[in-house]
Each structure stands twice: as C-alpha cells, then as structure tokens.
Amino acid sequence: MSFLRALLGRSKPVQPDLDQLFGLPSAAVTLRAAAGFQPTGTGSVAFRAAEGQAFASLERDVTDLLNADSGPAVEPITDNYGYTWLVLRSDASESSDISGLVTDIHAVNSSLESAGFGPSLLCSLVTFADDKGRKVALVYLYKRGTFYPFAPAGGQRRDNALELQIEATVGNDIAVEKDKSRWFPVYGAPGL
Question: Rounded to whole angstroms, how far apart are CA atoms 17 and 30?
Fold first, then answer.
C-alpha cells in the first residue's frame, strides 16, 4: 500500500498527539524570558458540535467536571461559523500555573476524542500578552498535531512579523507547523 501511496503522491495523514500540549509550559517560560509574553490564564478548545443527545450530554459533563471545585471557569461560546468554543479561564499568570490550564485543555480534547468525536475537534489555543498590550495565541491544530502562533493586530489583520518571531522563539519547545498555509487566522476567537 505504501508503494501505491508514494506512486500517487499521497502521504499518510499525521495522527493527532494530544501529549504535545504538555510542551506549552516550557514554551511559556521561553516566551517570558525571550519575548516578554506572559500567559493570560485563558485557553479554549474549538470543535464542531454534533447533533444528538450523546454529544450534548458529553459537552455538559465536561463543562460540569471543569467547573467543579477549584477548576477554571468554563464558558461555552458558539462563533459565527458554527464552531463551539469551550473557553477556560483560570488565574494562571505564572508559567508554573499554566500546567493546570494545559491539563484541563488536554482533558477536554481527550474526552471528545475518546467518545468518538475526535474528527469534530478543530484546534485549541492558549493566550499570552506582553506589557505593550499585544496578544498572541499558541494554536494547536488537532488534526496535524502541531502548533502555530497567531498574533491579531486589530480587525481582520495579523502581525506576521510577531508570529515569525514567536515561531523562532518556541520552536525548540513545541512542534511548530512547518506549512505556513495552515496557519489560519482565528480572528475574534473566544479567549483571545
């Protein structure tokens, strides 16, 4: 089969690796030291909600689990494109505290994946800001198993130079998406 795949110019799709998310705390340390960006304590998971009781029940269970006790506040938001974003807000402003936020994001992704809704997952993101008021998100592409930086510059514009700077800064900490055409903008993403 691999010979035929090579002959036709097709490649095997990359499998998602949710454990890549656990590289974010070290990327946060690098971002703070090299570029002055601090975690805001906000992250989100985007997915296409499926119809039916099973999915609605799973979404409710995940939200209830994360809202329990001392977990982060979770807010489901539907965007203009029909994607649901579970926005997690914690008090994580230190890189050591970002680990809890990343664990919660991983739990949401894992729960959806193990329930058979992996193909519905779009991306996850964690937001950072600097003292100049600039924001940048490290976006995890579920279907590619890689990250890319997204730096909104107001309206429907993005700061490409800052994105390239962030890519170079965190390239040793996380798997950065090499194909820049896959760095799609997430303008107005809840949590950003």
Answer: 22
Concatenated DSSP letters for 156-185?
T-B-HHHHHHHHHHHTTTS-B-S-GGG---
Q: How far apart are CA 18 and CA 186, in angstroms?
A: 20
And the tokens for 25?
A: 């705390």
Neighbours of 28 (CB within 10 A): 27
Contact yes or no for 46/123 (Cβ under 8 A) = yes
Per-residue pLDDT tens digits for 21-45: 999 999 999 999 999 999 999 999 9
HSE, CB side, 13 Å, CA atoms: give it for residue 176.
19
In this prediction the pTM is 0.84
Q: Does residue 55 have a pLDDT over 90?
A: no
Q: Chain-centre distance of CA 17, in angstroms?
A: 13
Residue 41, both tokens: 């304590």
pLDDT value at residue 137: 97
- Under 8 Å between Cβ of 96 and 25: yes
Among residues 44, 123, 127, which one has the least CA distance to residue 85?
44
Burial of 63 (0-12, 13-18, 19+ CB in 10 A): middle
Candidates 144, 161, 143, 145; CA nearest to 153 is 161
Name the strand (E) or helix (H) holding 26. helix 24-35
